[in-house]
Amino acid sequence: MTDVPPKSSPRDSLRSLAPILPYARKRLGWALAALAALTVASAATLVMPLAVRGMIDNGFAADHADTINFYFLALIAVVGVLAVSSASRYLLVMTLGERIVADLRADVFAHLTRLDPAFYDTAQTGELASRLSADTTQIKSAFGSTASIALRSLFMFIGAIGLMIFTSTKLSALVLVGIPVIILPLFASGRAVRARSRDAQDTLAVANAFATENLSAIRIMQAFGAEPATQARFTAAAEGAYAAARDALRARAVLSGFAVFLSTASVVGVLWLGAHDVLSGRMTGGELSQFLLYAVLGASSLGQLSEVWSEISAAAGAAGRLAEILATQPLITAPARPLALPQPPRGEIAFENVSFAYPGRPDRAVFTDLSFRIAPGEKVAIVGPSGAGKSTLFQLLMRFYDPLSGTIRIDGVEARDADPGDWRRRIALVPQEPVIFATNAAENIAYGAPGASLKQIEAAAEQAVALDFLRALPEGLETRLGERGVTLSGGQRQRLAIARAILKDAPILLLDEATSALDAENEMLVQEALDHVMQGRTTLVIAHRLATVLAADRILVMQGGRIVEQGSHADLVARDGLYARLARLQFNAGVEALALA
Which GO terms describe its cellular component (predicted)? Predict the structure, then answer.
């Protein structure tokens, strides 16, 4: 995602910006108003040399005081028009840039939320955050001030050239001969500027990703005394970002300096020739002054275009990175005509000959021809050694991935035939590592049900045995919990996650070691709450501690991605297979621990 294209042409800058153009077209009215203000401001600027010529040729005499007053008043009027139009142009253009970037950021973030977990298996969230901030800021500059300067410079350059020809065809011809010498290096160097700018953005994104990852694990960093090593690595990353940005700035500086020198030197050369024409009487001093002003305007506009082209090249690199995100299509999508899941929901689950391997490890199959069926309202526990495929089963059931072959059904509807959003609304998940957001407790519980009332939130918290500790917080359920819920204990975070699942009120409940972070007393209380919540719902429980699955209607024992045993606790112990061995290891260890105590 961060590779720099090996080859590009000057047109590539505009092509890279093409995905952003629809955002500008949506604000066409503002763009046209800004263009009108820009046209007026450019015209006012181009009128000034005409007034200067008239003042020089007609006003420098004692009996022409009225004439010189007239030209100065005309200049003041033109300056007034220029000031109003320039202010209007700035306001409209900058507002347009802000509006485009706000729309773009919203769309990129919305697209990121639709991408499936396979994308995030390899992507770095810190780098994606950099694209949402640094890259969009670069584009804001391109569609804001840079676009305004580019159009203004272009208008001024074309207008100045036209009026130069009108003033003196001979001198204009000499200037026009030198323009290709200035423009061709400008386009030729655009590729290098664009590549270096993109490299700078990529390097900065890597540094941001490293910082985000490590700051989110600040307690682990400090617990292991890893601050010096982490600081050194980030300093090295920051130095790399600086070096890449410095290279980009050097390329821009060389480009701008070259263009400014050539354009200004051409004006000096033409002025020298014009001075000889005035001495020989072939043109007046006013005409030379007028021509000189237009030549300066044209040269400065060309110089600004060189700088603007560098900015556009840098924005093209940023736009290309964002276009990569927008062009990435999710693997999990709704079909053209999704089947509706039956109402009322039953909660029936069926895996039929399911085979699966993670996208990054296609040669390592997790499941091969896995089949089982869970009846509506049945409570099923899934046990087995680490790596048996228990968590992957939940991932497939949530449709974070699709199987390579076979089918997964809920209430008789195959996963690929349903809308993923409707499918997931049938399932409530309590993960082993609960995710707590940096907002208040009430909003965390209502994360999957944003329209829930405070009464409903409190009822869910009470069922999860969380209401008492939440009310004891400084601001009750309005207390902000900090990033990742750092102000809560592990057990409190788990109960909050259980309350969130309870409030969702889905017909299928997935519990991934939902009581693993609780002490014995709270585990008993939460288990009682879960027993109540599981009534009338299909429940799948992943458990490493077998004591939590004794009351299951059925236990599926997994090993190597296959179901090797199934039945009740008593039946499986009687068979003296894998489950019985796991049970002896855990329960005997518990007895020995009690004896030692």
Answer: plasma membrane
